[in-house]
Design goal:
By secondary structure, the chain is an alpha+beta fold. The protein has a single domain, classed as Hypothetical protein (hspc210) (copper amine oxidase-like fold, 2-Layer Sandwich), CATH 3.30.2280. About 30% of the residues lie in helices and about 15% in strands. It contains three helices and four strands. Strand 2 and strand 3 form a beta hairpin. The radius of gyration is 18 Å and the shape is elongated. The termini are far apart.
Length: about 140
C-alpha cells in the first residue's frame, strides 16, 4: 500500500544515536528530511501570516516538502521546499502548477517579504520589539 502520510519513521530509543547527531548516508553526506525542515520553517514565521502548515496531501520526501501559506492579505500559496530553497508552485493550497516558473528564495523571509507587505510589517515590528527588549536588558 502506498504511504500518503509523510511522517518520519519512528526510531526505537535504543538506536545508539545521540539526539543531536547528524544522520549521514553511506557517502558521508548529511541527509535532511525536508518535512522536518518544512515544520521548522512554519514555526519560524507562523506569527506573521494568517495560516501556514506543511501539506498533508502532496507527497514529501527527503528532498522535497510542500508548505501551504495564507498571507494576511488572504492570498493563498503552495510553496515547494528543496535544497535549492523555497518557491511558489501554485496560487492555492495543496496544488502544483508545472507551468509556473517562479524564482527560488534562499529563505522563507525573503519569499514572504516579496509576497506580502503585511508580513513585512508584522515581522519588522516583531524585530523592533525584540531589539527594544534586548536594549532594556543590557541597560539593567
Amino acid at each position: 500500500r502506498m504511504e500518503t502520510d509523510c511522517n518520519p519513521m519512528e526510531l526505537p530509543n535504543n538506536t545508539g544515536f545521540e539526539e543531536d547527531s547528524n544522520y549521514t548516508d553511506f557517502e558521508g553526506t548529511e541527509v535532511k528530511d525536508m518535512r522536518l525542515e518544512a515544520e521548522a520553517v512554519v514555526n519560524d514565521v507562523l506569527f506573521a501570516v494568517s495560516n501556514m502548515f506543511v501539506s498533508k496531501t502532496l507527497p514529501c520526501a527527503e528532498d522535497v516538502a510542500y508548505i501551504n501559506v495564507e498571507t494576511r492579505e488572504r492570498n493563498r500559496y503552495c510553496l515547494e521546499l528543496t535544497e535549492a530553497g523555497l518557491r511558489v508552485v501554485a496560487y492555492d493550497f495543496d496544488q502544483t502548477d508545472d507551468r509556473l516558473q517562479t524564482p527560488y528564495h534562499e529563505t522563507v523571509y525573503s519569499l514572504l517579504d516579496s509576497l506580502s507587505p503585511a508580513y513585512r510589517e508584522v515581522f519588522g515590528n516583531a524585530l523592533l520589539q525584540r531589539l527594544e527588549a534586548l536594549k532594556k536588558e543590557s541597560q539593567s
